[in-house]
């Protein structure tokens, strides 16, 4: 009888990892991180693309486009350009860049995932301002979370 109860208590837990969508979310977070580091955040004011170098002004422009879009359509188009459209559903996104001094620059920093699955990707970047006299640049870690 104890063995029978054990089987019913144990077997459903064996299949829990197969019911998760966190792999899909992790791949999405990695795709968004790659898109940000290699194209979107790698542009400076002159339009030159410098992969791996995050421009602080471009980051702030992206932040305003995500946190206060001019219309829902603009927001959806921006999310699609980042690779956030999964099977027609746009997920939540959080981007954090933390420099070597511990200063954090956040996009959607106040939103938390709650009890949902979260996909996360991290990348090392060099963060600088378009005007090196203001901000000569520092190594940083870009973290992308998707849920």
Question: Which terms summarize this structure?
Answer:
about 150 residues, alpha+beta, five-stranded mixed sheet, 4 helices, 7 strands, about 25% strand
Give a structural overview.
The chain is an alpha+beta fold and 147 residues long. The protein has one domain (22-146). Helix content is 37%, strand content 25%. The chain has helices at residues 2-14, 22-40, 56-67, 72-82, and strands spanning 53-55, 85-86, 89-90, 93-99, 104-107, 119-128, 138-146. The protein has a five-stranded mixed beta sheet with strand order 1-6-7-4-5. It has a two-stranded antiparallel ribbon with strand order 2-3. The protein is elongated and about 75 Å long. The mean pLDDT is 82.
Task: Describe, in short, the structure shown.
Helices cover 37% and strands 25% of the residues.
């Amino acid at each position: 009888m104890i063995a029978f109860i054990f089987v019913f208590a144990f077997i459903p837990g064996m299949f829990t990892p197969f019911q998760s969508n966190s792999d899909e979310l992790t791949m999405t977070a990695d795709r968004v991180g790659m898109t940000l580091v290699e194209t979107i955040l790698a542009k400076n004011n002159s339009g030159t693309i410098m992969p791996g170098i995050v421009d602080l002004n471009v980051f702030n422009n992206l932040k305003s486009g995500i946190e206060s879009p001019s219309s829902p359509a603009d927001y959806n188009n921006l999310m699609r350009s980042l690779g956030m459209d999964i099977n027609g559903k746009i997920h939540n996104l959080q981007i954090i860049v933390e420099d070597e001094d511990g200063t954090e620059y956040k996009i959607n920093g106040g939103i938390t995932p709650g009890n949902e699955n979260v996909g996360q990707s991290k990348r090392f970047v060099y963060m600088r301002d378009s005007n090196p006299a203001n901000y000569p640049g520092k190594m940083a870690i870009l973290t992308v979370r998707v849920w």
